[in-house]
Specification:
The protein is α/β, with parallel strands linked by helices. The chain folds into two domains: 178 residues, NAD(P)-binding Rossmann-like Domain (Rossmann fold, 3-Layer(aba) Sandwich); 78 residues, Orthogonal Bundle (N-(1-d-carboxylethyl)-l-norvaline Dehydrogenase, domain 2). The chain contains eleven helices and eight strands. The longest helix has 20 residues. The termini are far apart.
Length: 284
């Protein structure tokens, strides 16, 4: 049972993992952020400093708590330091073989009863649960956070085939404790939000291919006409087109034609126009 000041472990210091660690630290939890690359941890620490400063300037965070919050996140390249954690969240690269390696390591290292959550946007949770030993599967669950985690409120909570109902209840409560709104979703490829989102993205790219409108005008239309906080091309630039292409390919393999990635998206990814920090995308 997870209660009070939780001991949280997060594996993967990329955009998602670092901010998952951050929101748990803001909530007062004891957090270890683990990555196999020391430089990734250093970049994550610098980014979280910037996020806190920006949030404090907008009155989201108490400026007097900065050292307390960021001090609650300990970084390490040694996964064995997660052995005492009550909850471990896997947030590594969205590739099944990479997640398999990490989950098998968690299985070997973590204490019995540890709640293991995987942050994946498309891979079925029951597939990932198969990479831990059978006795751990009741305590294994999917938690799909949304980027940027420091601002987005939603978490899709996805039980695997053998996930215990108590585990689901604990995770739902834990999400609430860190200021998120959890929604329970059936374990299917792409879950719910990404299936909706990528249909929109695919059609948006088709509109550009057909010369109907520019990426800038489509983004403006989605913001003003649909009430979206950002348009599909802004979102692809923020999350990277390469990640979007990967997600669409996974869902295309699962569901067929409606998720076939558009040729223009493939071409731009192959040419390196993927967006993200310091790289050209659709809008820059």
């Amino acid at each position: 049972m997870v209660t009070g000041k939780e001991r949280i472990g997060v594996i993967g210091a990329g955009l998602m993992g670092a901010e998952i660690a951050f929101v748990h630290a803001v909530a007062g939890h004891d957090v270890i952020l683990c990555d196999k690359i020391e430089d990734a941890l250093s970049r994550a620490t610098r980014r979280l400093n910037e996020i806190y400063d920006k949030g404090a300037s907008r009155s989201f965070y108490d400026p007097h708590r900065k050292s307390e919050v960021l001090g609650a996140i300990r970084t390490t390249v040694d996964m064995r330091e997660l052995a005492d954690r009550e909850v471990v969240i896997e947030a590594v690269f969205e590739q099944q073989t990479v997640k398999e390696e990490v989950l098998k390591a968690i299985d070997r290292i973590c204490r019995p009863g540890c709640l293991i959550a995987t942050n994946t946007s498309t891979i079925p949770i029951s597939v990932l649960a198969s990479f831990v030993s059978p006795e751990r599967r009741a305590r294994f669950v999917g938690t799909h956070y949304f980027s940027p985690v420091s601002r987005m409120k939603l978490v899709e909570v996805i039980p695997a085939i053998e996930t215990d109902e108590m585990t689901v209840s604990e995770v739902m409560q834990l999400c609430g404790d860190i200021g998120k709104t959890p929604v329970r979703i059936k374990d299917v490829t792409g879950f719910a939000v990404n299936r909706l989102l990528h249909v929109l993205m695919i059609e948006a790219v088709r509109l550009v291919e057909e010369g109907v409108a520019t990426p800038e005008d489509i983004d403006l239309a989605c913001r003003l006409g649909l009430g979206h906080p950002m348009g599909p091309f802004e979102l692809m630039d923020a999350t990277t087109s390469s990640l979007c292409l990967q997600a669409q390919q996974i869902m295309f393999d699962a569901y067929g034609e409606r998720f076939r990635p558009r040729p223009l998206l493939k071409q731009r990814v192959q040419a390196g126009y993927v967006g993200g920090r310091g790289r050209k995308g659709w809008r820059n």
